[in-house]
Specification:
Blueprint lengths: L9 H10 L1 H11 L5 H16 L5 H22 L3 H8 L1 H24 L3 H29 L5 H22 L11 H6 L2 H10 L7 H7 L3 H12 L2 H17 L6 H6 L4 H15 L3 H13 L5 H26 L1 H25 L6 H18 L1 H12 L5 H30 L3 H19 L8 H10 L16
Helix pairs in contact: 1-7, 2-8, 2-10, 4-7, 4-21, 5-6, 5-21, 6-7, 6-10, 7-8, 7-20, 7-21, 8-17, 8-20, 11-12, 12-13, 15-20, 15-21, 15-22, 16-17, 16-21, 17-18, 17-19, 18-19, 18-22, 20-21
Length: 483
């Protein structure tokens, strides 16, 4: 079914938009610490001097700031562990509402850190917010995929990444010195994520629970049918989807533990796919550019902060491009294109960095390559890495798979945020060759193992993995094709 023929209802659109408000918050706190980094680090220094009557050493301040940036990703890694329990115990929608309180408390701690002169409150706030990140970035795509019709599932799941990228851009704008990234207002800047958090509490309770959760997990067919009718508005489509859900329910075991998840034969190839696609996405350079773009540009241009703003704008534009292409080009083709372009950009960035001291004009090429890398990431690996696990596993395995995916994504972000500055200082531009190698691995795994899931129901996808460990990758009538 073509994208334009699906006619999503107002309730469906409202449900999806309410769900992605969590990703908007996450993106905001990813982008807002870049430009005002020196100002917040100065607050750390002043607090230390007031307590100990001496200035903190540059080395200690660098470590403290690296901890402040990376602890959000570490918290997200821990938060991912709770996805399955929350999703299966409280439901998909209600779990999003439960974890939203972590965002509210975390933001409040960050805001009051300045007033109480305690940088520990800011670090603790980012840790709590990180727990929210790990939970919300799994629960939101899980809910979105289970309320969306098959023909719109990938496009709507991509909206999660659109919201995330938009949040990064908003964070970058608010962090500018001409906005709120000043000595007087940086605490106000950190408080703005409370607006979408409160909006989510106002809207999401009026949206339906996942029909798949109600029917398959809870066995409440009448509630599932009622929720589907609200989401689809077409009784014929409701009946068809109910039959598809019943078919899936008949093929899956009642409960899947983590040990069973890891041992289950039909899950082996999906686990391998999720492992490599997610790590390749997170360790191929994008996160280094997002976290440290201002520092990368500062040595070459006086307008570094505004070039960083351009990074955020390109990020949003190409997530929107991915939204429109997701159900046309398919997941596999976008992944291949994205990884290939990322590898090429990293290679060229290494070359440009090696000769920029001889040809200063190469600095402009470096900026363009950063923009191209961002575009390639958001065209495929970025959005797809967050939701592909939800498509490759059945209803019982899906929450664990998305938790696993989230752990890989946030773990990769944490490692990169922590290690990129010291590695860059040791081997310089050759760091990008490491990113290139990772992207090549992602391309190879996608080429040989990743199936096309576009236009297929959850049960159709799961059935292919149930039948065999190896997919007919090059069979034109088979599962894994470009069509």
């Amino acid at each position: 079914m073509a994208l334009q023929e699906c006619h999503p209802t107002a309730i469906l659109l409202t449900s999806v938009m309410a769900a992605v408000l969590g990703s908007l918050q996450i993106g905001y706190h990813t982008g807002n610490v870049n430009a005002p980094a020196k100002i917040i680090a100065q607050f750390f220094n002043e607090t230390w001097r007031d307590r100990h009557n001496q200035t903190i050493s540059d080395h200690s301040l660098t470590l403290l700031w690296s901890l402040s940036v990376s602890i959000k990703d570490f918290g997200a890694l821990l938060g991912s562990l709770g996805v399955k329990h929350l999703a299966d115990s409280f439901g998909r929608r209600n779990s999003i509402l439960v974890v939203n309180c972590l965002s509210v408390v975390g933001a409040c701690l960050m805001v009051i850190s300045k007033a109480i002169k305690a940088f520990e409150a800011l670090i603790l706030g980012r840790l709590l917010f990180g727990l929210f990140c790990g939970l919300a970035m799994s629960l939101s795509p899980l809910y979105i995929q289970e309320v969306s019709p098959t023909a719109l599932r990938g496009a709507f799941a991509t909206l999660n990444q659109v919201a995330y990228a938009s949040g990064i851009l908003l964070g970058m704008v608010s962090g500018l010195e001409t906005a709120l990234g000043t000595v007087d207002h940086w605490d106000i800047m950190l408080s703005l994520s409370l607006i979408p958090a409160l909006a989510q509490y106002l809207i999401l309770p009026f949206c339906p629970e996942s029909p798949r959760y109600l029917l398959i997990n809870k066995g409440r067919q009448s509630n599932a049918e009622s929720a589907l009718l609200k989401l689809r508005g077409n009784p014929d489509r409701v009946l068809a989807e109910l039959e598809e859900m019943k078919g899936e329910a008949a093929h899956i075991q009642p409960h899947v533990s983590i040990c069973e998840f890891l041992k289950k034969r039909s899950y082996r190839l999906p686990i391998i796919i999720v492992l490599f696609v997610n790590l390749a996405s997170q360790l191929s350079g994008f996160n280094a550019v997002i976290n440290y773009s201002t520092s990368i540009f500062q040595s070459k241009f006086d307008t570094a902060k505004y070039l960083t703003l351009g990074v955020g704008a390109v990020n949003v534009v190409f997530t929107l491009v991915a939204f429109f292409l997701m159900e046309k080009a398919g997941r596999r083709r976008l992944l291949l294109t994205g990884f290939f372009c990322i590898a090429l950009c990293n290679l060229l960035m290494t070359v440009a960095d090696s000769v920029v001291h001889l040809v200063p004009q190469m600095g402009i090429l470096q900026v363009l390559l950063v923009f191209c890398l961002i575009s390639a990431y958001e065209l495929g690996p970025g959005p797809i890495s967050w939701f592909i696990a939800g498509e490759l596993f059945d209803q019982r395995g899906r929450p664990i798979a998305l938790a696993f995916s989230s752990m890989l994504n946030w773990g990769g972000k944490f490692v990169l945020a922590l290690l990129f500055p010291p590695v860059l200082s040791v081997i310089g531009g050759y760091t990008y060759l490491l990113f290139m190698a990772v992207a090549i691995i992602g391309f190879a795994v996608t080429w040989f193992q990743v199936p096309e899931t576009k236009g297929r129901t959850f049960d159709e996808i799961a059935e292919e993995f149930r039948r065999t460990d190896s997919l007919p990758l090059h069979n034109k009538n088979g599962f894994n094709t470009f069509t």
